[in-house]
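thread from #wetlab-drylab

HS: before we spend reagent money on co-crystallization trials with pyridoxal-5'-phosphate, can we at least see a predicted complex? here's what I'd submit
DV: go for it
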Amino acid sequence: MSLSLPNYHDVQQAAQTLRGVVHRTPVLTSQTLNGRLDAEVYFKCENLQRVGAFKYRGAYNAIARLSEAERKAGVVTYSSGNHGQAIARAARALGVTATIVMPLDAPRAKRNAAASYGARIIPYDRNTEDRVQVAQGLADAEGLTLIPPFDHPDVIAGQGTAALELFEDVGGLDALFVPLGGGGLLAGSLLAAHAIAPECLVYGVEPLAGNDGQQSFRKGERVHIDPPSSIADGALTQCLGEYTFPIIKQYAHDILAVEDGKLIHAMQFFAERMKIVVEPTGCLGAAAVIREVVPVRGMRIGVILSGGNVDLASYAACLAHEP
Ligand SMILES: *Cc1c(COP(=O)(O)O)cnc(C)c1O
C-alpha cells in the first residue's frame, strides 16, 4: 500500500469537489413496502446518477485530484462497465484524455458509449491477456495515471458522498444496506456512516455466488475466489481491495449474500411499484431488505440503489421471469 487510507475528511472534501458536478440523486420511499415490513425504508437512487451509477462520483473525484502534469498526460482504466463509462465521462468534463482497456468481445453498446465520450478504446484478448497488466503497461509506456475501479483512496472518498447525502437528507438511520463488489462504495459509505451516525449498522451485500467479501469479513483477511457467475455483473470481483478491506473489516456490521432470484424479485418490485429501472447489481442492498435477510422491523433503513444500467433484452427477461 503506497497511499494512505482515506478518512471522513476525504469524503467531505470529495463532496466539495462534486458539488454541482454530480446529481444530488433523489431519495424515494414506498408506502407499500414500508407497510409490509413495518419499517421506514429510504432508497438513495444512484441509478439516476450521471452515467447511470454512483461510479461517476469516485471517477470524477480521482481525476480532479490529479496534478496539472498528470492531467495533461491522461488517465487509463480497465473496466468496460460502469467505472469505464464514468472515467470516460468525467475525463471529458475535466478536459483530460481517457484510455479504456476493453475486451475484444465487449458489447458494442459499451464500446460506443465510451467512444462517444471521446475516450480512446484499447482492445485486449480476454483469453490470453490480463487487463490490469495491459492497462499498467500503457500507464508505464505513456505516463498515464491508472485509476482502478475501487481500490484507490480518492475513488473510495468519492463513492462515500452518496451515503453522506443520504444522511444529510433523511437524518439518522438504524441500518444501511450497500451493494458490494470490490468495496469502494461500501468503504466510502462506512467512512460517512461512522462519522455521522456511528450507531447505524452498515451491511455490505454481495451476490451469493461471489461472496468473497463475506468470506473475507468472517476470516479477518482477504479471501480470493474463482471468477463467480451471477446476474450482478457489477459485483463479480474475486477479492476485496488493499484499501477497501481494512475499512470494511473495521466498520462494517456484517456482509450478507443474496442469490440471483432475490435480485430479480427486487428488479420487478422497482419496475412495478416504484417505476424505476435498477440493474441487478444495484438491487443487492434492496434485496436483502425486501426479503428480510436480517431483521428490519421497526427500523429506519437506508438502501443505496447503486446503478440502473442494464441492456433492454436482459431487463425484459428479468421482468418476465416467473416468481
Ligand atoms: C461497481 C458497482 C458496484 C460495486 O461497487 P464496488 O465499489 O466495486 O464495491 C455496485 N453496483 C453497481 C451498479 C456498480 O456499478
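DV: The CA atoms of residues 112 and 121 lie 9 Å apart.
HS: ok that's useful, forwarding to the group
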